[in-house]
Queue: 4 jobs
Job 1
Amino acid sequence: MNEIRKEIMEEVYLTYLPADKFKTGELSIQMVTPLRKETAGLNAMLPAVLRRGTMRCPDMESLAAALDRLYGAQIDYTVRKKGENQCVGFVAGFIDDAYVPANEKLMEQVCRLMGELLLDPVTRNGRFLPAYVEGEKSNLIDAIRAIRNDKRDYADLRLLQEMCADEPYGVSRLGDEESAQHINNQKLYQHYQNLLTTSRVEVFYCGSCSWERVESAVLEALSALPRGVVEMPAVAQLSLPPEEPRLVTEEMDVTQGKLSMGFRCDNTDIPAMIMVNLLFGGSSNSKLFLNVREKLSLCYYASSSFHRVKGIMTVSSGIETKDYQKAYDEILKQLQAVQRGDWEEWEVPGALSTMINSLQSLSDTQGGLENFYLGQAATGQAEAPEDLAAQLRQVTEERIMASAGTVKLDTVYFLKGKEDVQ
Amino acid sequence: MKETKYTRIGEKTLWTKLANGLSVCIVPKPGFARKYAFFSTRYGGMDMRFQLNGEWLDTPAGIAHYLEHKMFDTEEGNALQDLTKNGAEPNAFTSNAITAYYFDSTEHFYDNLKILLSFVSVPYFTEESVAKEQGIIGQEIGMIEDNPEWQVYKRLIECLYKTSPARVSVAGSVESISHITAQTLYDCHKAFYTPSNMCLCVVGDVDAAQVLSITEEILPKEGGPVIPRDYGGEENLTPAVKESVCRMEVSMPSFLAGFKCRPGKGGEAQMRQNLIGDLACDVLMGESSPLYAKLYADGLINGSFGSCYEMLPGVAYAYAGGDSNDPKAVQQAIIKEAARLVKEGIDDAYYQRIVRANFGSTLKSLNSFENIAVSMVEGYFHGYDPYRFPEVFDSIGKEDLIDFLRENIVESHGAISIINPKEESNS
């Protein structure tokens, strides 16, 4: 890919990926700011309130009408966690000029609308509209509570909250309910002004328009963006596990228990750790999948993820409450197998192949590319998917074992059923 | 292969039918690294009663899904692992009407295609491996039953239908799957996994000749007989029950309101009916409708609200829902707004932009290889060409939507399913 990345205004970066194979163009404008317990809720609520209306399109109905006329262009607000940063803003998808019957140019119009959403919200007496703030406040609180509905997500979130209780990484991307309750119009508006001035802005475009068209559309849309002292994106710190792993157990009225385990990885060999995770539980050919799920039928699902900017690996599994100890032991046994280099001949090339496939496939979806490049930008990394693929091909079995050897259990979170329901 | 170009959407398809009756579709995608193969049989959760060798067979609920799980077993081991070793991402699903096996890969595509075609066409079950799967699928059923979104949907369908197999969960129940044996699985495979009941769709930058020669080499030379199926006869449009309410571990009430509609009859008319149903839902309660804005502003719905029109074998229904603190008020507002539109008509400019938006989002869905393959295969099984959507859009007018709303979105066709929070979490 011939990507271009350039600072087009003070601390405003445009990443440009030319591609004409898609039916659509994708444009994203994101504010990147360090993740903190005190501001997470404000940041999460802000794009939702902004998405309610602009001076030109002051309510959802007129915004939706404007988007319909742009051939069903979509502008979604997003709230994401990238390392120890929160990224909030808008992502737009709109059909490529080639398929617009009336020869209209959609990118410029979509970009202008995004700029208005960000910089020209509908206000009254120097505040947001109270109805929008109240509505989105209760939506945010509902969304925070709704995490409980999906027990798998809930268990994974609770694990990180417990494990990283004293670190920004333990803060959920939506913040917590208590802080959300304290948000009011005045605080939110103040925070908005502050965020516009101090956050790094990352703009991303993928589609068939030229660099010049995109750059000038973005410059125009953001011309009113105030710039002050910009706070740099946070760099996550690695921590060590406690002497003895912590165990947290909670009860809920559910049929299936959820066992989540968090590990700290005390090494900086990222490509090798990616391989460790793939072998351990990161694919459908991993040790967790083949042994814990398939061979022993201990879980319906069992998989691991590697949070590379934070040096954390987590395991997520769904088990019968009565099988807790068996599943726990078996998961650790599989990790030990990776540490010892106890694998069959096909496992390492298979894992590598899986990862290469997913890196090569990235360039086939605009959403995947946007998310990848935002993650890279927010965590200060520069390599393209193909660079990462090249590094992975260099990883030796010795490096995998050495990296796996530094992986230590930190926290266990178990969500168990109230009674052992069959 | 028969080549068709679709200039309005910048697409091309290649179709052929092999001597054994298998239909093969290739959708070329130059410039993409991914290659996607989707191998599907017209056999799903609803096909429980069918005729084989002149005799009617009743098979247990959940058997199509069970069979899907067991198909990955091969005499040498497991096809899932063979594909993953080659860097492919394989998976499968069973819906009401079809079962599909697919993978995507950037490398070793043709090797992976051989594995896919081979494991789906050669069954290998033992009593022991079938019995072992009961545990895994039992867990899956447990997990699905804990899911509020699934519960609210299943209960809506049970309200709407009296006898249709659409009522039955695709995965079945722990009880129903306990009756499945290796023999029943072999019977179902023999009936439905014949080339003439299947369709292969490949999306990506591939060599068509090589795809065909691999397919001819691996698959059986003979097709199979047409299998008559029984979906319990067409129901009238009155729901079995008007409402279902239950409690689960959720933070706020969620609901689905459904309306029974006349089933499709296949062919391009079915595709047209589908688009009319979707457009009517959008005009009535889509994100840019006056009703949506009002319900949102009144705090009766939030961003989780959505609506759609669904057509399954022998049944069709429109439904809408999400989280709400007053589901019945939303249901009533929908019925009232439909009546208003029928009476006052649809504003012309509004109608035009809804059609624009629908065209845009249908076009957008062509970025997804999965969507392309699923719609090609479904279109093939129902006798229409999904890439003709711009022409079919052109053939639809406001009056079609009004007719749809008048006939379907009325109190007498409606039912509602509600999930309330448990008392203790309702603080």
Job 2
Amino acid sequence: MQTKTKELVRVEGLKKHFKLSGGGLRKEPEQVVKAVDDLNFSVYEGETLGIVGESGCGKSTMGRLLLRLLEPTEGNIYFENRDITTFSKQELREKRREFQMIFQDPYASLNPRMTVKEIIEEPLRTYKEKQAERSKRVQTLLDAVGIPESYKNRYPHEFSGGQRQRIGIARSLALNPKFIVADEPVAALDVSIQAQVLNLMKDLQDEFGFTYLFIAHDLSVVNYISDRIGVMYLGKMVELADSDKLYNNPVHPYTQALLSAIPVPDPTRKKERVMLTGELPSPVNPPSGCRFHTRCPLAQDICKQVEPEWIEVEENHFAACHVVKERLS
Amino acid sequence: MIDFWKRFKQNHMAVIGFVIILIILLTAIFAKWLTPYDPYEMDPVNRLQSPNGEFWFGTDQFGRDIFSRIVYGARISLQVGIIAVGFSFIVGTIMGLIAGYSGGWVDNLISRITDVLFSFPDILLALVIMAILGSSLNNLMLAIGIVYVPIFARIARGTVLNIKDSLYIEAARSMGVRPITILWRHILPNAMAPLIVQITLSFAFAILAEAALSFLGLGVSPDTPSWGIMLSEAKDWMELSWWTAIFPGIAITLAVFSFNIMGDGLRDALDPRLRNEKS
């Protein structure tokens, strides 16, 4: 799968800081949540880049930044080598047909007062497709995601969670996008349905050849669908590698801890569990140096002071960790 | 639409309300052919007649036929209700949608205006507006309309605030749908339920307000057959002639009541999520 073809999206120094307003009249020092702090990575055409991390690590914020649903505080996002952060509203509107989103909660992402047909048709209407074309396209899309066409005049509440997510997927495919950000698309579904939806997403990718950025907190899900995986911790990327490499040879202590937490359905196998202590620190005042040092089993003095660099551990395998760097040299 | 009617039909009270409103509407339209007497014509010989075969609802102190006046009064009441509430619904909803969706200083400005309007008691505000504009039917409708604008603006704003952060709005944004289309296609339909209920409630209040202002002598001119004016005039006679007050009173009550129960039915029927539950 891993063919390093063309770069589709490139992210440079992407930051999103949310300001917390202090209480009204009192002069309090302004607090800033660094939800996404200095991300650099690329997404290649046709691949699936998985992003994992704990709740609140900035995964979803990053997904929304890539589609410019949120305005970045700093940094650039190149889509096919054009910086979309500089686009005007009009240009952005035109460009939006090329990147779409699949949302986490299929119960909230479909307008309850629109029929399935209207929902899937909406992106087509937005880009002024003709009525006849639209009906044909809706039919094709419903077929592609496995919803019987006879259901097209029903409302979202008449469907199950899995079916609703299929409808959401059909909507995101309506305009033949090149890039799809899937924000935890199966997290709200029953485990039995998750596999179905994941397979559907994979099949659709094979059929239409788009690129996924797949956000999740479930490692087995991400491993199943991704070609490469990035691990995030408190707004920063800590490790990025091909999924096989990341699973078999994780170098960052945080990744190691995450992977060791995956339950293995084999009672005879003894696991070495890397236990993390402590809570996820608040992103309002993230720890100095390496943000992971408060919970890291290998933390050293340097970790508390200096932010680790983003280094290439081996080919296509990046990590940000002082200990790893030391081991290499 | 057929579907909507089916669901509406299941609510019998609402249908009764709808039928009564329809009857009032038809009476208002065909008043000319339904009334045995001219509502303005005085007949001193037959003054304060109790209800009988000749004068079904009796006559007032000038000998005017109360039945005819009530039938014509439906015109005034419905006209005031429709135009005043229509005005406040359209103006208020647009204000609320804009305030809720755009936020920032626009929201602040609109919200403060509604706060100011809200801080006066309804009737007092209408009185002030009437005092400034002078009394006429048009000004009466405008005054009542202005009084109810802030209610619609607030309801619309609150609902928009609630809806605009939902995922399907974000989904629409991510597809490049224009803000105005989002407001019209996604937010307004989902915000309609409380607004429709408010329309029917305000309709009832508008009829009452017309009656109250006319009762206070600030509405339409005193010889006009309006339910409020009839009630106002009847207050001097009702101890002797109950019918002068009872019939306009029943007319007001019936109209207000019908609008309220129809409003409840409409709200339920408009919500696709409540569908099929009773079938």
Job 3
Amino acid sequence: MAALSFRHGPAWLFKIGALFAALGMAAAIGWVRQPREYRVDPPISAALEQIRLMPNTISGAPPEVYFALNQTYETGGFDLSQGKRFYTWFGCASCHGDGRGGSGPSFMDGWWLYGPSMVSIVSSIRDGRPHGMPAFKNKMTIDEIWQLSGYIKSIGAYKASVSAPSRNDDRNTRPAENRAPAATLFEEGPNPVHPDQGPSP
Amino acid sequence: MKTSRFLFPLLVLLSGCSGGVQSALNAQGHSAVALKDLIIFIVLVCTAVWLAVVLVMAWALMRRHKRQEGEAAERKMTIAVSVAIVMTVLIVGVLTFASFLTTRSLYSGTDATVTIRVRAQQWWWQFIYDNADPSIAFQTANEFHIPVGKDVRLQLEAVDVIHSFWVPSLAGKQDNIPGRENVLTLRADKPGVYRGQCAEFCGLQHSHMAFLVVAEEEADYQRWAAQQRQAAVQPVSAEAAAGRDVFMSKPCAACHTVRGTQASGTSGPDLTHVGSRSTIAAGLLETTRGSLAAWIADPQTLKPGNNMPIVPLTSDELRQISAYMEGLK
């Protein structure tokens, strides 16, 4: 242990050395980029279809592969950005507006008709829901649906997140996706629900 | 300017750099010729200046050194420095004036007969032939036709990030910038197929964002435009007809338009006449049934990061869709 003692130099030199080492580590960690997988292997996309909903179609178990992918559809910046792209491409805004709802329910009022789990959101998009939500299973591939679901979940997230999609080109009309939601948006209260859409808020 | 004639030996040397179909040295349009003449003029002048400087320097190094002092030497020095300053100002002035004249001539074309909206996006080109009468308007992707000898007005737009429209044989670069519209007027003086590509780094597949400009005689151009306005042809073979049904029932139709069918997606290229274009995926592959199948089966291996997903298809469905696509002439 004698070799590890720092008798041979002043203590401040050691502290500065440690500081630079820490900075170097931080730079190295920042430099290692999040790996991107553009090609979704067909077996993976087949597995992503295997969601198991509860009998009342609210929430359920995601497929094992979702955890093997490190829940990338909720935490990966690239996947969230693709989700944001699809939100425009597939016309979500025509009913849900910028996320605050319109003829469709809001994602930002703190109330999820079918619960806030990814499985529920994926199922809503893929298979549709009563009262006007169309099924997108013939319009999008399953990995696109997962990307879009991750983005929609981030719009209505209850807490701030470190991963964010790309910024808006247009003027912001609501808090950014990765921010903590503005309290006023929750105070407005949810849209009225139909009896078959679960318990009232 | 007729300077290009004297540069023939140099051009022969440089021809190693030109790919023929896409080269600023193969100038075939009004703007490209003006720019090429300008750069050749500047290179000639600068070469002459460089040679003169090197010769004078060599002479100064080699000559027998004879110390000179007094008024005569001072006067000699004054003359030499004055001549150098006057020549510098003169040459810079001439080059600036030549550059001004060239640039002014680029923007003179205002009587354009054809207007095309060029929407650049990651990573392909959308060419929209707008018209107040919607039955005459049409659009195509990654390949467009223009009449020879006519000014063509291009409205350059971008959907996502900054791109740059560049057909070296016809005109200089002009950026496509999101949220604004740039205008580029170009004219092809000789019929031919000119290759262009994005000249502003725009992401992962920037290098696979090419397009073709087909310049042809007025009659041919009108024939092409009339053909493009038609709705998609009905498939003749049973295989292609099955391919159409697969196309409509799968996610394909949500992003692509095939006019005359219910496929009306707008986020991917218009495929109404995809079989009539010579390349697919923005110049990545030649349009053949095989390359169409390869592209549809696995776009993320051929062009990683592009926005076309792998749509799960059986091998029969893949064959049928490829046959349908190839038949969309």
Job 4
Amino acid sequence: MSAATVLRCPGCGDETSAGDRFCEACGEQLVTALATDADATDPAAERAVASEQERAAGVCRSCGGVVGEDGYCQTCGTKAALARDHFDAEPAPWVAMTCDRGVRHRRNEDAGAVSADPEPSSRAVLVVCDGVSSSTDSDVASLAAATAAQQVLSAGRARGIGTPDSQTAAIVARLEAAADAAREAVVASTAADSPDPASCTFVAAVVEDGRIVAGSVGDSRAYWLPDRGEGVALTVDDSMAAELIARGVPREEAESGPQAHAITRWLGVDAPEHTPRTRTQDIDSDGWLLVCSDGLWNYCSEARDLAGLVRRTAAEHDGRPLATTAALVDWANAQGGRDNITVALARLTSGRT
Amino acid sequence: MAQFTASVHQNEFLPDGGTDVHAIVTVTASGAGAAGQSGSGDVGEIVIIDTSGSMTGSNIVAAQQAAVAAIDQIHDGVWFAVIGGSHVASLVFPGGRGLGMVRMDAHARAAARAAVASLRADGGTAMGTWLQLAARVFGTVPSLGQRHAILLTDGANQHETPEQLTATIGAVTGQFQCDCRGVGAAWQVDEVRRIATALLGSVDIIPSPDQMAGQFAELMQQAMSRGIADARLRMWVPQGAEILFVRQVAPTVEDLTGRRQEVNPLTGAYPTGSWGDESRDYHVAIRLAAKAIGQEQLAARVQLALGEEVVAQGLVKAQWSNDDTLTTRISPEVAHYTGQTELASMIQDGLAAKAAGDTVTATTKLGRAVQLAAETGNDEATTRLRKVVDIDDAETGTVRLRRSVDKLDEMALDTASTKTTRIKK
């Protein structure tokens, strides 16, 4: 980018970089000339039509009215969210996830996938992928990646030779396999000759045998937030900001700098390597496992602050995970909702063998 | 089978705090077929001829010829009748004791021609009584799904008060459509326009009697080509929104706002009468509660409905943005029709002021009309205005009232004031 020309997004006015096809701040398409090339066989165009049809003919999220066939509420006129723009999951009463487009972006390029066994604190998988918005099909890629990773992690039951160390090693191997599967899903979602191949971040946490094993590529995060005491970050970002922090720059300063959101590792055809960095945490007290995208932590980055936010929010919703993930998404939107937001929670109790 | 489309022209972007959404919705019908073929009931036509004393001489002869010309255009099988009107109304055809209509066939056509030939000019003018009789005559045929009349007058409505006429118009509104024509210069444009507007018809001047037959034949041909019996414009707006106005803006300006009939609390219906193969443009304006930047919502669903069936829908949207290049753009269609609507009212107000002797107001209003006609490319209006004012500078609207103006030209300007031109592509 030359110093003389500052490119600004026509949608929100944020600075953009030369060559970007979409604004990082609001998702506005920047290169309109490319868009006009789209013909009827363009898979992106077909998908746009398909997603119009997916537009939930259900209940309006704004006023509770009925959404018409044209995709607008029949009472208040609010445009109904695409199924892709807002979705949630609650595989068991102790695990939940909410994924939302946010306020500023035109598309939801975040994705999440969760699974859990029915018995509380027994076994769960929480995955979040955040599509990199400078590429074309990141919304498709992130959803495919999260789903593929979750399937690999849920299917794996290998426990090594039964010792805690070998169990952990088996889960780490599963996380690596999950990252591989996620990457393949990302690569498969863009045409081989695409100038902007899709890419996304990856974070996954596995709850099994009284411990959490978490791994990540990029800047989506996992935290262990016990009900008492300090919150613990289970992941380290692969980002310019994290490198600055490692060099001693205060977190707040590093994370608000111009390159704060530039990530140094990701999943995609153009990524050199994608082995997740993992960390294991014993569940030694009652608390929350939080897995989230930067749409949430942008507004609350320190583990200590997040612990407070999650505790407060959970308390306001009787400790129900789905109500709490939804409320945390609402909270991030109330802070400005500058990015897509994904929040996954598992309620964990100690004392299980 | 008739086909309908609706397209919307607007700038959906509103600035921060913006509330008012304007849009032009173009509704087009094709494949309408001939009247009475859509299966929505039979068609009834009534020809109403002024037989007051002032028609004596060449006017009544021409009116008889015009009535015959209209009768000749009525398709076989269409129910019809002829009414003669003076200070009272009488059923000229079909004859007999009671009121009624007959289906057109060769025999009925010959009998109607003969009945029309017997018309004599005598008496005064009370158009309300003509309309009342027409409504009663239509009422004798319950199978009618499409009721249309052509009314010819040559004079002012002297034998009833304006209040009586208003009451009658109110009573018959919605019962039939009526195209009105005035012959010569002795009738009142305002008065006849009130009838035509309420009864979803047109108003025009026939300058000389020998043009009557041609005009009547044309009017009846048009009526026979309206295969869509009765359509309503429907408009849904969100809860809490306010409808500023709903106007037809092409082919003529008609304010529909006050004609709303509630379908449900959020949806109103506006009668538009019968349709042939044609396009009509509507200007709708809605006031919403402002939303946050980036929010998008529907401001209106504008639909055409046949009975309860919605056959076309256009969506009027609103999206709040902080980008001035988006929010300051004015839709060319909205701008064009805003100008055309103002043009119509400037012509009418200017002529009214001129008639009242208020030269200053007349000059200002007609000057503005000249300016608007030039800006919006309405050459027909410019041509008509030229006969009433001398134009010094169309761009600034500088005009002088002409000393001697042919009354017929002034009336032609008045009756045509609501005719609009479509935007030049």
